[in-house]
Design brief:
It is a single chain. With about 350 residues, the protein is α/β, with parallel strands linked by helices. The chain has 2 domains: about 120 residues, Alpha-Beta Complex (Aspartate Aminotransferase, domain 1); about 220 residues, 3-Layer(aba) Sandwich (Aspartate Aminotransferase, domain 2). The chain is about 40% helix and about 15% strand. The chain has a 7-stranded mixed sheet. A 4-stranded antiparallel sheet has the order 11-12-15-14. Helix 4 packs across helix 9. The mean pLDDT is about 95. Bound molecules: pyridoxal-5'-phosphate. Pyridoxal-5'-phosphate binds next to helix 4. Pyridoxal-5'-phosphate (PLP) binds next to helix 4.
Length: about 350
């Protein structure tokens, strides 16, 4: 009998969105649209593709473990020191490092009830306890989070915009919140979807990092930059925090292709603008159509819209899949009648809306 750490016993493996090829095979379909994993429907920057191809010749070498070229670009562009960034194999790995750096057995961490599952994975895998604060109208209730703070609290995890609800709080709300959090508690401000936010009052968290040395800002190249398969994300925080992350970061965790693609993608502002505009048009179109059909949804600052079907989300998920659309059921997030619909191209959204209309007849 092989003994394993009992702390991982209650943990369940992450359930990703169903791959397109899988669904085609299962249902005998030729066309399947994936609106399940908040990926970029426009692909990625052509400059990033070129960079990937160019870097293939270096595949036999280990990558630069320091991500120097990408680090220097981001530092210069964001007005921060290169030593204030830690890179991860996706933002997921930076989140996993948070647990390794800060969580001792029995420590408490806090997040919201309806949010990204990897926060709990980071904490529970280190024998920590995740405390869930209630949401307010499916948005993070920052006061409820403050009220859950105890002497045992180590880390607070917040997604802004939130996954899966798409809600976001403002600069003023963030400032009030950060003022209330004791300085010995780390705040993980996960802004994986920040580039999609259209609210002019969306927070400028980078500016807050100078004042609040307990905050780590999480970013990713998986969403607006369209590089999800390459796995590159990063955290920005005070040097003293980043130095701790460097102790647990695997040495060559970002591939050469990922570094080169992220570098090129970051500089292609034209692609980023197109992705932003496509997303806004898709959200506007989708929400107008849902209003017309009479389907409830949560207004979104991200690239997906949480939609209330009124039926068992797992059944709706299955029925939509049979018709060639992969969405994300809300059940694993505790939202049993909801589905999360990633915004595709306008054409994809028109097709999806037709299917929703037909099934509402
Ligand atoms: C809120 C949030 N944070 C982080 C991530 C992880 O991103 P990455 O692909 O960089 O690991 C996701 C992915 O969906 C997410 O929704």
């Amino acid at each position: 009998m092989i003994n394993y750490r009992q702390t991982i016993k209650p943990m369940t493996p992450y359930v990703p969105g169903r791959p397109i090829e899988d669904v085609k095979r299962e249902f005998g379909l030729t066309d399947v649209v994936k609106l399940a994993s908040n990926e970029n429907p426009l692909g990625c920057s052509p400059r990033a593709k070129e960079a990937i191809i160019k870097s293939l010749k270096d595949t036999n070498y280990y990558p630069d473990g320091n991500c120097t070229k990408l680090r220097d670009l981001l530092a210069k562009s964001l007005g921060i020191k290169p030593t204030e960034i830690v890179f991860g194999c996706g933002a997921d790995e930076v989140l996993a490092m948070v647990g390794k750096v800060f969580v001792n057995p029995g420590d408490e961490c806090i997040t919201g009830e309806e949010t990204f599952s990897q926060y709990a994975a980071s904490v529970v895998s280190m024998d920590g306890v995740m405390i869930y604060a209630p949401m307010k109208n499916h948005a993070f209730d920052l006061d409820a989070i403050i009220s859950k703070i105890t002497d045992k609290t180590k880390v607070i995890f917040i997604a802004n915009p939130n996954n899966p609800t798409g809600s976001a709080f403002t600069q003023a709300e963030e400032e009030v919140f950060l003022k209330k959090v004791p300085s010995n508690i780390v705040v993980v401000m996960d802004e994986a979807y920040a580039e999609f936010a259209s609210d002019p009052d969306y927070p400028q968290t980078l500016d807050m990092l100078r004042k609040y040395k307990n905050v780590i800002l999480i970013k990713t190249f998986s969403k607006i930059y369209g590089l999800a398969s390459l796995r590159v994300g990063y955290g920005i925080a005070d040097e003293n925090l980043i130095n701790l992350f460097e102790k647990v970061r695997p040495p060559f965790n970002v591939t050469i292709q990922a570094q080169e693609a992220a570098y090129a993608a970051y500089l292609d502002r034209d692609f980023v603008r197109k992705a932003y505009e496509n997303n806004r048009s898709a959200i506007d179109y989708y929400c107008k159509e849902m209003d017309a059909i009479g389907v409830n949804y949560i207004p979104s600052q991200a690239n997906f819209v949480m939609t209330d079907t009124g039926y068992d989300s797992l059944k709706v998920f299955y029925e939509l899949m049979k018709k060639g659309y992969i969405v994300r059921p809300g059940a694993p997030f505790g939202m049993d009648t909801w589905i999360r619909v990633t915004m595709g191209t306008l054409e994809q959204m028109r097709g999806f809306v037709r299917v929703v209309r037909d099934s509402c007849r």
